[in-house]
Amino acid sequence: MTSNFRVAYTLHMNWDKDAIFKALSDSTRRLILDELTERNELTLYELTVRLIMKHDLAISRQAIAKHLSVLEDAALVKSKRKGKYRVIQFNNEPLKDLLKGWIE
């Protein structure tokens, strides 16, 4: 992932529903989204510490990075560089669009 936000975030798009559901199917990825909802910007290190300490997960930063990759592919998270750190943010737009058709 480059330091720029993915192009997909610049314009409204048809989100990949299968990728969204795949990303949400894993409990660790849902915990990651919960943590990003609570504190919108987290570094990989901060996210790892929160998952280990708060949720008692035995997980490595490399494993979390793989989960983040799946979440990024589904456009549910985005990341950018801030100095020497990669900051991860939750993007709820795909979920809003996905549910919009079913709820309205």
**Approximately how much beta-strand content do the residues carry?**
5-15%
* N-end to C-end Cα span: 35 Å
Question: What is the helix tally?
Answer: 5
Helix and strand composition category = alpha+beta
Major sheet: 3 strands, antiparallel
Lateral arrangement of strands in the main beta sheet: 1-3-2
Spans of at least 5 consecutive residues with low confidence: 1-12
Annotated CATH architecture? Orthogonal Bundle
CATH topology: Arc Repressor Mutant, subunit A
Backbone shape: globular
- Count of DSSP strands: 3
Description:
- The chain has five helices and three strands.
- By secondary structure, it is an alpha+beta fold.
- A three-stranded antiparallel sheet has the order 1-3-2.
- The longest helix has 13 residues, at 61-73.
- Residues 1-12 have low confidence and may be disordered.
